[in-house]
Amino acid sequence: MKKFLEGSRAVAEIIKLCRPGVISAYPITPQTHIVEELASMVANGELDSQFVNVESEHSAASVVLGAVATGVRAYTASSSQGLILMSEVLFNIAGMRLPLVLTCVNRALSAPINIWNDLQDSMAVRDSGWLQFYAEDIQQAADLHLLGYRIAEDANIMLPAMVCMDGYILSHGIETVDIPEIDKVKKFLPDYQALYKLDPQKPLTLGCLADPDYYMETRYALQETLKESLALINKRAQDFNKIFSRNTCGLIEEYKTKDATDVIVALGSVCGTIKDVVDELRAVGQKMGLLKIVVYRPFPAEEIYSALKHVERIAVIDKAISLGGWGPLYTDIKAAFYGKEKTPQISGFIMGLGGRDIKIDSIKTVFKLMKEKPRDAEFIDIKRELLKDKYEDTTYGMPA
Fold first, then answer.
1. pTM of the model
2. The pLDDT value given to residue 5
3. Which CB contacts under 8 angstroms, 24+ apart, belong to 302-306?
4. Which of 244, 271, 301 is the last residue of a domain?
5. CA 273: distance to chain centroid?
């Protein structure tokens, strides 16, 4: 059924169809509308679930950890500082092999306080052992939750999944969204049957102490499982496409890359703007393309190399910065091509931090600069006049 929905409401509709037994979250902009809607569904009897009110995001993550540990499908959501407050528990959830799904409505991290969109929050926890999916539009954001549960709960995976959607741009934007029928959802996502759970009749220890003789093996197991999940994600994405008659859930999406000489690599909603620029430049004879990363963890390095090994130049757009280093996606793309027979010129660009608009002219600037010398962490659209006196104001590191 097609509905004209705000992104947050569309996600809530999909989570309702996923049938979680426990939901817990703490309100934080711009995530709040998702769980607000789910709380209403529970209160109105539309969703048979227990909604647990808590005093912080750390507590919300702890509640859903406990729920999944006892064999119940669960859900939570957060943003920005809330996700960071959850981070201790996020590592525990992955280490205990608990198949939770969390929505990260991406928002910049403090300080200074900023409530607008970039990807620094989810990138800060990319090493926690969670699968990470990034949506370009509201339909994809909704669909990736179904895929997230299906992969997370697979007997060969049993790891949590994080679906990332750009704050405001997707969470508060409104689009026509195809909300599937419950029978199709149940065909794709059966009721959760836990492989292991806390049960007084069958005692089990989760998250126990591991000394140096065993800890490294747990990390190895997580790494190997994440690598193996790439093939399963592809398979389940094909199943999804057959059942729901749309193609939104692959590892990557190629847009006019087959004959391209210059390709931008990006993830999230900015890909829509990049597609418009690609179309415009193609109309005047420039062979440009886009490679959209849908699955960021595990990182689909071989698929990316296969898609781009023929191009001359790659520009990676990051809406996050690993301070003191480079853009996170940029470093992963560089690693994917390291030591390969064919290596394009690869440049990295930092854009859109703190919600700064990424405009068509900004994307055109990237296409122009990528043809020049390689760039490691070029900031685009920064107000350089603020920096001309070399950080005179020691309070904020830049002139007042």
1. 0.95
2. 97
3. 302/336, 303/230, 303/251, 303/252, 304/252, 304/265, 304/333, 304/336, 305/336, 305/337, 305/340
4. 244
5. 18
**Spatial separation of the C-alpha atoms in residues 172 and 190, rounded to whole Å:** 30
The residue out of 184, 215, 244 marking a domain boundary is 244
pLDDT digits (tens, 9 = 90+) for 351-393: 999 999 999 999 999 999 999 999 999 999 998 777 766 555 4
Asked if residue 329 lies in contact with residue 361, where contact means CB atoms within 8 angstroms, the answer is: no
Tell me: do 270 and 180 sit in the same domain.
no
The verdict on 278 and 203 lying in the same domain is no
Q: How far apart are CA 105 and CA 197, in angstroms?
A: 29
Q: How far is it between the farthest Cα atoms of the chain? A: 70
Asked if residue 306 and residue 201 are part of one domain, the reply reads: no
Determine the pLDDT at residue 385: 75
**Domain boundaries, position 343:** 252-387
Low-confidence stretches of the chain (pLDDT beneath 70): 388-400
